[in-house]
Specification:
This protein is of the alpha+beta class. The protein has 11 helices and 9 strands. It comes from Methylomonas rapida.
Length: 311
């Protein structure tokens, strides 16, 4: 019998990261590496279930009216702007309200369902990216099959290519994947050093290779070395917000690797900028940059947010 407190079941008769390091070795990872758990989720989510969830929360009638209009707004096809396609499922891609409505839908379609069916199975969900923790591989396989059935009951399908079972523990395994990416972080077993200087192994998150590669490409696209007519203060005002955002988000975990990468990438571009602006050698450019940093240590975000002396 459907739970009356769950509007989906009733209808169908569904700034800074904080990570909980998994204590159970088996992870069912869905939507890893920036890909969604659900195939074409925003294109296939059902309007009637979203409206049912809004009515369950006793939203004012005008809110439900506007949400219905947003959902049913016709879609303009590329190459044929005069043709409008009627929408009966899915939310507008890029729409301001789409993430909110999708999150409300998944709260009942996944979160509340997990609380009822797998109360002791911890999980994390961000939008439609999900990580579920299991004690054994059989549990992970069983949960994946249950999720497949669950999403089919609400008109969705699991993205099979981007959902996987991962083993995260200090014991070596060669028949299964041992790392995964979630929210721009790589989760895997790393070698750490405690306060006494002793080495130990533990599962820890760290900025993913893909994220750091994207940072490098972004810094290169700025073409800082060509801004020779601008002063250092102008460069700081333009780029500090982005640098500060990266450091605040990725700098909490596996700090040394991330900080070294960001320092090397941005500092090398500043060095080329000094060379072009003052027409000097690499050695003299390094001296000028070191002198500027000593005079104005808070000028660039990576100078005072990264512990450069330890990088």
């Amino acid at each position: 019998m459907a739970n009356s407190s769950d509007p989906v079941d009733t209808f169908v008769d569904r700034t800074f990261p904080c990570f909980l390091v998994p204590v159970q070795p088996w992870e069912l990872v869905s939507g890893h590496d920036g890909c969604s758990l659900i195939s074409a989720f925003f294109d296939n989510v059902r309007h009637d279930l979203i409206i049912k969830a809004l009515e369950h929360h006793q939203m004012p009638k005008w809110v439900i009216l506007y949400c219905t209009r947003w959902l049913e707004a016709p879609m303009q096809t590329e190459g044929q702007p005069e043709l409008l396609k009627k929408r009966d499922i899915g939310t507008p891609q890029g729409g301001v309200i789409s993430p909110l409505l999708a999150n409300l839908f998944l709260h009942y379609a996944f979160d509340r369902w997990m609380e009822r069916q797998y109360r002791h199975r911890p999980f994390e969900r961000y939008a439609d990216d999900i990580v579920c923790h299991c004690s054994t591989m059989n549990e992970a396989i069983h949960l994946r099959e249950a999720l497949r059935s669950r999403f089919q009951s609400v008109g969705l399908t699991i993205n099979e290519a981007k959902s996987k079972i991962v083993y995260i523990d200090t014991f070596d395994r060669f028949n299964v994947e041992t790392s995964f990416t979630f929210l721009g972080y790589d989760f895997k077993v790393r070698t750490l050093r405690n306060r006494k200087g002793q080495l130990f192994r533990k599962c820890m998150p760290g900025a993913s290779k893909k994220a750091m590669k994207q940072m490098t490409q972004t810094v290169k696209s700025w073409k800082i070395h060509r801004s020779t007519t601008e002063c250092a203060e102008d460069l700081a005002r333009r780029y500090n917000a982005v640098l500060r955002g990266w450091i605040n988000y990725y700098g909490k975990f596996w700090y040394r690797n991330f900080s070294y990468h960001l320092w090397r990438v941005f500092q090398s571009r500043l060095l080329k900028w000094v060379q072009g602006r003052h027409r000097c050698s690499v050695k003299k450019a390094e001296q000028r940059l070191a002198r500027l940093r000593k005079e104005k240590p808070d000028l660039f975000a990576h100078w005072y947010l990264l512990r450069a002396a330890n990088v």
